[in-house]
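User:
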Amino acid sequence: MDDISIVLQLKKGNQLAFTTLYKKYGVQAFSLSFKYLCNKELAEDAVQNLFMKIWMKREELDENKPINRFLFTVLKNDLLNILRDSKSNIFVLDDCLEILNYIDGEDTEAQDFDREQVEMIRSAMDQLSPQRKKIFSMKMSGKYSNQEIADRLNLSVNTIKFQYSQSLKQIKEWVRECAIMLLL
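Assistant: Predicted structure:
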């Protein structure tokens, strides 16, 4: 079934056309969402929201315009809104732990991480001061407790905790800004 037929059937409320549309574009929509959100659940929610909007607005669709452009424009706008919503603090760096372990070389299994996603997080880590980067790397390795890091670096435990939390905050903000710029 081509896109024009799908849209025409969708406008009539045909659920099979909706399923066909989902099967045709759902994986692409998820990949794009995950690339920018770095969170499987948020990416799934974004895709679900996208297709819910399509179903709700199905009667307004124009069969003469490419449905894929409409789909990805709606998705892009939703992703931008999610990334810009700093009040809800949706982007959580811990959701990228697998990527960080991959970057550190600890996860040697083949991963399906997008090259841009890995580079975005690597760039964010490179923005840290040398001291924060050292603390962050030691903490992320999982090999050292806060006390052990403090002892090795001759710092207080509170300093380690503060520097680590500030590192997370800085990386989260950098990645969020990069994701927004890539979407624009």
